[in-house]
Specification:
four-stranded parallel β-sheet; alpha/beta; 15 helices
Length: 427
């Protein structure tokens, strides 16, 4: 069975979130694409030219002249190449939650035809495409891999909120279930990726490459977080140490902080899940996860200690948290560790207000029960935590922030946005 020619590929992108939508838009500038999502509201918004994730501007949507949006299964029937870009989260026990991936595979299986291609972009553990997804495609479609259809894996590398590193300017790893399919899939992505592509030798290699990208970052941040705890006990400023160490050419510029989001704080658990399934206990990876998952409680405890040193009554205290999203300049509140810090503060009896000009307010309420405030009252807070350094917060004068506090108050500059002397506490 031969693959379709490159110029005959008609695409469907399944899942129109932070990963799927930019992909659909880029491909939709030059070839027919159906952007598919089961969220009817999302489809309505996109048809109206509005992306709530803020990853794609209205003018970019209008440039994708060959892109249509749908939540109807029958609209996928005319496609012959399916790219699955659905979330792969973890459950409350930090185990892979594959339900979105399974449901997407079942959806594609219903319209899969002889010679079609299915490419997965969702982050998974090595082996998931061939061990979990392909059997579903075969069962639902009645076709067999490489005899009835082809599969591929090309891991997403989207960085939400990053205007410098966009989809076309990030090198794309590709792979396929046969050499012929791998070449076609690589050529398909090469048609939109100006930074170039890298064809991995197998689907499992491509899956493994993706999952270790964020595992490596997670471990590096965990090291810096542990160093920050040590330096705090030694009464040494961590940022000053990192600046000094950074004068060496090969010192990696990581900084301490809360590690959330749907990549760095999640992907390592996919790898450790697979490692444990084959009988290996991954000690270093899980140790890094424990350190990073514990930083929210650590920040809360340090805030309380700083307040007590100023004779502030913790049980009666009111703290303003500036920023709630998992990273700066991004509306996404999924898996944000700021909520863990807020919960820890509330466990001490502290009342918290949260302001975030970037956050999706409805999602903050739906996912975390947080009612964001718009305008904090001056001289109202016993503590202020600059948790997420959105550009809007960075552009403020430190005196403007401190004016929101009572006399006395504690100002925690979690990410060292301002000079050391401008805050009472930082990691």
């Amino acid at each position: 069975m031969n693959v379709h020619p490159l110029d005959k590929l008609t695409l469907a992108v399944i899942g129109l979130g932070y990963v799927g939508l930019p992909l659909a838009v880029e491909f939709g500038k030059s070839r027919p694409v159906v952007g598919f999502d089961t969220n009817a509201l999302r489809i309505t918004q996109l048809r109206a030219g509005h992306d709530v994730t803020q990853e794609v501007a209205p003018e970019e949507l209008s440039e994708a002249r060959h892109l249509s949006f749908s939540d109807a299964l029958e609209d996928l029937a005319g496609c012959n190449t399916y790219i699955v870009a659905v979330p792969t989260p973890i459950d409350v026990n930090n185990r892979p939650e594959l339900t979105p991936l399974i449901k997407a595979s079942e959806t594609v299986g219903q319209v899969l035809k002889q010679g079609d291609i299915v490419i997965y972009e969702s982050t998974v553990f090595p082996g998931a495409t061939e061990e979990v997804c392909v059997p579903i495609l075969e069962r639902v479609s009645g076709l067999k891999l490489n005899a009835g259809f082809f599969a591929g894996y090309s891991p997403e590398r989207i960085n939400p909120g990053d205007t410098a590193h966009r989809l076309p300017s990030i090198c794309k790893v590709t792979s396929g279930s046969t050499p012929e399919a791998a070449n076609l899939i690589d050529a398909l992505y090469a048609s939109i990726i100006t930074a170039g592509t890298y064809r991995a030798e197998s689907i499992r290699v491509a899956e493994a490459a993706k999952v270790i990208e964020n595992t490596q970052r997670d471990l590096n941040i965990a090291l810096i977080n542990e160093l920050a705890v040590i330096f705090n006990k030694l009464e040494i400023d961590t940022e000053a140490v990192l600046k000094a160490a950074g004068t060496k050419w090969n010192f990696l510029p990581f900084r301490p902080g809360l590690v959330g989001g749907h990549c760095i704080g999640v992907d390592p658990y996919y790898l450790t899940h697979k490692a444990q399934a084959i009988g290996h206990h991954p000690e270093i990876i899980l140790a890094g996860r424990r350190i990073n998952d514990g930083m929210a409680d650590y920040v809360a405890s340090q805030m309380v200690k700083a307040m007590l040193r100023k004779d502030i009554s913790v049980g009666q205290a009111r703290v303003l948290v500036m920023g709630m999203t998992f990273k700066e300049n991004c509306p996404d509140v999924r898996n944000t560790k700021v909520i863990d810090m807020i919960t820890a503060l509330q466990d001490y009896g502290i009342t918290t207000d949260v302001i975030d000009p970037c956050a999706n307010t409805s999602e903050a309420k739906r996912q975390h029960g947080i009612e964001l405030i718009e305008t904090p009252e001056p001289a109202s807070y016993d503590g202020i935590i600059l948790a997420v350094p959105h550009e809007g917060f960075r552009s403020m004068d430190v005196a403007e922030i401190r004016a929101l506090g009572k006399t006395p108050h504690v100002f925690c500059d979690l990410k060292s946005v301002f000079d050391k002397g401008d805050s009472d506490l930082r990691l």
